[in-house]
Amino acid sequence: MEPGSDDFLPPPECPVFEPSWAEFRDPLGYIAKIRPIAEKSGICKIRPPADWQPPFAVEVDNFRFTPRIQRLNELEAQTRVKLNYLDQIAKFWEIQGSSLKIPNVERRILDLYSLSKIVVEEGGYEAICKDRRWARVAQRLNYPPGKNIGSLLRSHYERIVYPYEMYQSGANLVCNTRPFDNEEKDKEYKPHSIPLRQSVQPSKFNSYGRRAKRLQPDIESYVCRMCSRGDEDDKLLLCDGCDDNYHIFCLLPPLPEIPKGVWRCPKCVMAECKRPPEAFGFEQATREYTLQSFGEMADSFKADYFNMPVHMVPTELVEKEFWRLVNSIEEDVTVEYGADIHSKEFGSGFPVSDSKRHLTPEEEEYATSGWNLNVMPVLEQSVLCHINADISGMKVPWLYVGMVFSAFCWHIEDHWSYSINYLHWGEPKTWYGVPSLAAEHLEEVMKKLTPELFDSQPDLLHQLVTLMNPNTLMSHGVPVVRTNQCAGEFVITFPRAYHSGFNQGYNFAEAVNFCTADWLPAGRQCIEHYRRLRRYCVFSHEELICKMAACPEKLDLNLAAAVHKEMFIMVQEERRLRKALLEKGITEAEREAFELLPDDERQCIKCKTTCFLSALACYDCPDGLVCLSHINDLCKCSSSRQYLRYRYTLDELPAMLHKLKVRAESFDTWANKVRVALEVEDGRKRSLEELRALESEARERRFPNSELLQRLKNCLSEAEACVSRALGLVSGQEAGPHRMTGLQMTLAELRAFLDQMNNLPCAMHQIGDVKGILEQVEAYQAEACEALASLPSSPGLLQSLLERGRQLGVEVPEAQQLQRQVEQAQWLDEVKRTLAPSARRGTLAVMRGLLVAGASVAPSPAVDKAQAELQELLTIAERWEEKAHLCLEARQKHPPATLEAIIHEAENIPVHLPNIQALKEALAKARAWIADVDEIQNGDHYPCLDDLEGLVAVGRDLPVGLEELRQLELQVLTAHSWREKASKTFLKKNSCYTLLEVLCPCADAGSDSTKRSRWMEKELGLYKSDTELLGLSAQDLRDPGSVIVAFKEGEQKEKEGILQLRRTNSTKPSPLASSTTASSATSICVCGQVPAGVGALQCDLCQDWFHGRCVSVPRLLSSPRPSPTPSPLLAWWEWDTKFLCPLCMRSRRPRLETILALLVALQRLPVRLPEGEALQCLTERAISWQGRARQALASEDVTALLGRLAELRQRLQAEPRPEEPPTYPSAPASDPLREGSGKDMPKVQGLLENGDSMTSPEKVAPGEGSDLELLSSLLPRLTGPVLELPEATRAPLEELMLEGDLLEVTLDENQSIWQLLQAGQPPDVERIRTLLELEKAERHGSRARGRALERRRRRKADRGGEGDDPAREELEPKRVRSSGPEAEEAQEEEELEEETGGEGPPPPLPTTDSPSTQENGLEPALGASSGSSGPFPTLTPRLHVPCPQQPPQQQL
Q1: Which of 353, 696, 1267, 1313 is spaced 20 to 30 A from 1250 at the CA atom?
Q2: Residue 538's Cα: distance from chain center in Å?
Q3: Runs of H (alpha helix) within 790-843
Q4: How does pLDDT run across 190-219, given as a tens digit for each residue?
Q5: Do 1296 and 1185 contact (CB within 8 A), yes or no?
Q6: DSSP letters along 13-80, please?
Q7: Phi then psi for 746, rounded to 5 degrees?
Q8: How many other β-carbons are positioned within 10 Å of the β-carbon of residue 1382?
Q9: What pTM value is reported for the model?
């Protein structure tokens, strides 16, 4: 039995070579180099350099092919023999009317062929039965002993094989026609319809019982072939094949009855079974594939077969499974193989240089590479380049598209040539190879093991259709190697090396043949082998040799020598054959150009060889010819009718041979001349021209790159280098000091160079020049030695000797000593100049450089002393530098006296010290700074803050301790503190104005657009300060006089400007009018929109209109100053309806008393501030206005008006109230969201005359009788004017009112004048109604937020008082922690806003209120009016409780 798949042992690996790039550039040369090693294995693998990766040039979309079908178990020779045997025995039983069923023994199918063969080897059926050796038969079939398997095998043999064997032996035996009827467990065998070897089709049986043919009426008489009698015709059987008759009792053994169906006699059965099988081959598939479709099919097949991804299947597993399938007679696995695809038709995988497509530079490189399989067969050293025809597969590559298990069978290449295979991409290809020495042994083993195949097909191995397990061959002594060829690798097979293999999966390979000079003897032997096998040749070997011999100058030298050797043998053989022809009596001859004839017209009819040199033909039989080795097999005609057809005469052949010899021996002649020249055998040195001529001859005649040629090239290179060097030496000496440095040679090198020139086998006239230079150098050397021996010599003498040595162009050892002595003297001079008292101080780098240079000069006592002095000086200098560095970098600054002492001591060191210099500069700056401080402190005026800040900044940057700096810093800090207090007093929270801008008058108030744009610029941070508009420069701000003059001018401009603005705004249409005419001049609110309809308010100063919701508006029943008695409701002139827009009211307008306190603090400052001068000017302006206002109020007319107004108020107060409504709680003074803080906020009392108590916001219950509704109900009852103001009285008051509104100061006289002017005109019902609507909306929002705050407090109480957490309290804002319950309410309301995300009631509209309200309003940037108590506390009673004199934020 053959070994199973588990027993397959992979053969040893073949040699693998990895050439370097230098080796890889010569393909055939490298193959010749590795041939001694590789041909011992038959095949080898070559891995190209890693970066040799040719692009895949096949046009994938157009590549279509039809593969071959391969049934694996029909490829293996021994398996095919078994299948042939089973087909024959199946045919035998089919003829008998039964189908073959193969029994199972021990759970595997019984091998009937091996059983039959072993029975024959053991002596035959009878002998085995006699000796009872069936157990031995079972043992040889590898069945286990002890199970009585021998008896079972005997039964199967008797039933299935023995009848067939008896028929084969010719015995007249009739077998049981139904041997398988009772064997249910046997497996039915289906014949293998192997292509071109189809089995006989089974006969169709009749469905009725067959009677003897003698009973048919048309048959008269029948005679039995056995007994020659015709009696008992009812027992005669008629054969359906030959119509012979047999008695059923004459047959052996006799038949009991006439069989049913078709019956054939023993003679017909034997004739059918002994018919030889047809030749075996592959059939073509019916489907055409593209590369993509074939790859999908191949990958799907492999993945399904192994049940894993294709790339994960191990190659060892595929190999074992392949040989198991090949050896199996049970499993029929079929694969497809795209083999022998012509690259001329489908395109090569390598780039090819042709006119079809343009190649890139990379493709061009690979298209001309010798490893390109389209190029290798036609290389210069290749033999096949001399064949004109494109022989497919040999000169033109074939392509192979494989899938798993697709195989190529054991074979050798045509004409025993080399082959090379390149795997472009895909999975590996597994190869097996046998060396040429074992080729005949492999053939003998395969013939011995499968004689049945070779009997019918002697050239079976040449048909590439037969495999045999490598283990089987190795067990019979055949050496086999293997390899796995991966993508990008080459596999080379050598002449007559058998090889086979299979593919591991989907891949694409390309292969071609090539022949080198060493192949020629093998090619000649192959022709003789083909002649014995009568196999056709692919080309004529004789024609190839003669074609190369006809042009020997074109041949490579090695190839010419090999061709000469082959040509000599061929000529000798041709002489012998033609001599035999003459001896036969054939004398007729004619020349024939055989190369012009088709191959089929010049083939020997006996051995099929292709004739070229000569052939024998017959005049009477023109259709055939024979080679001269078969002259007796041409025809039976007379010799006189036969004639010789020759290509060359016997005289022409030696002439061709001589040309080859000359070409082959030309190298020897040349080599002899080169040897004589290089060895100087004749005593004459050749010139350079003669040696170059020899090299040129080798190049022109294409001599091989031998060792002798390399010696010649080396000699020429060396000689040319010597000539060039000698010329350079001479020209350098002539150039003198201008020659190139670094090209000098030493004296020893000069002597060696002269010796080298003398030893070269080449005559050079430059030798004399070199000798002259050597003599000059030796004379100079002697002079230098004498000068060094007499040291100390003059420095001038040493320097002149050095100059002369440099001009020689050769380095003399003594020149270095001279150089060192010169360098020593120069260094000492440099040190002396550096340390001289009169010299300029050197830097530390110079000192260090001298020390470093001194280490390299020649040592001497003077040098040591100079180095010590330099080192000591450098150490002292570095120490002082470090001390100065510490002074410059130290945090603790030193006083100027300390630094001055350090600088004074360092002045004595004769070295330039950068840190000392920096310290000196810092000290000078410090002195200048102190002088500046003294000058500014002792001036006529206090110093300005900007000047002090500049001095402080400069003083802080100086690395010097300055006592005055601390004093200046304290003064600056005090000034900043005062400015901060003043800012808090005047500026609203988050104000866009600076303190100086607020204190200065608004000089451009007359332009509405300018004023508005400036206000918007202030909001955006793009404004100019009012000081710039006053025309004050930075220098002017330092002069108090300039500030005062500019301020006075600004006051006048401000007044004129506001008057102009009022006139302009008064012409604008009122938004409250029912219909307005189109006008180009319309009011624009701060929001950028035009105010229109209800809700618009007009500024009392600039007369412009604004949206009430966009600005801070006054509250009707709030008063800027306290009053001890409540005011009646109908005293409408006391209602707070005065509205100033945010463009007119820029600050919080503190009280005059607060400003005076700031001025007192300012007087104590030793620093001048621009804000201080501006504040003084503002204060003087306010006091001046206050005096004029008091004078006006104290006049006789105004005093009388005030008295009448007081009487009217008393009368209104004495009138009974129209109704007694329930207690009306007052509205909260401010809304937490708008105020930002509830600190010191006044609570408004009820509107009743007796002044009900206040109610907190959280206790307010909404009702219909609120204070705002009461005021709304009183609007129809308001009448006026209540006073008659004469024009002479009104005009001065209005002018005073205008000037008072321009002041950024709160004065009580302003409020008194306002009420007096209000009483002298009708009540502004529309404004009052607008203010009521705005206040209602605000109060509605406040109540909703109060209820939400109460719910929040309850939730916090339910959670256990989380507000008491000290950690959380620590995280709260300081202003919240320091506020009272109102601040807590504000904080809670803010938290509620964050939680609800703004979903609560809308925030209240901003209103004008007390100074606290103004500070903490919803939009502090827009500003609001303010007021405070003054010198007229009893002028007008108020409706609310007194508020504090001054908000806490204004406390200084």
Answers
A1: 1313
A2: 54
A3: 795-808, 813-835
A4: 555 443 333 333 333 333 333 333 333 344
A5: yes
A6: BPPEE---HHHHT-HHHHHHHHHHHHTTTSEEEEPPPTT------S-GGG-EE-PEEEEGGGTBHHHH
A7: -80, 170
A8: 21
A9: 0.49
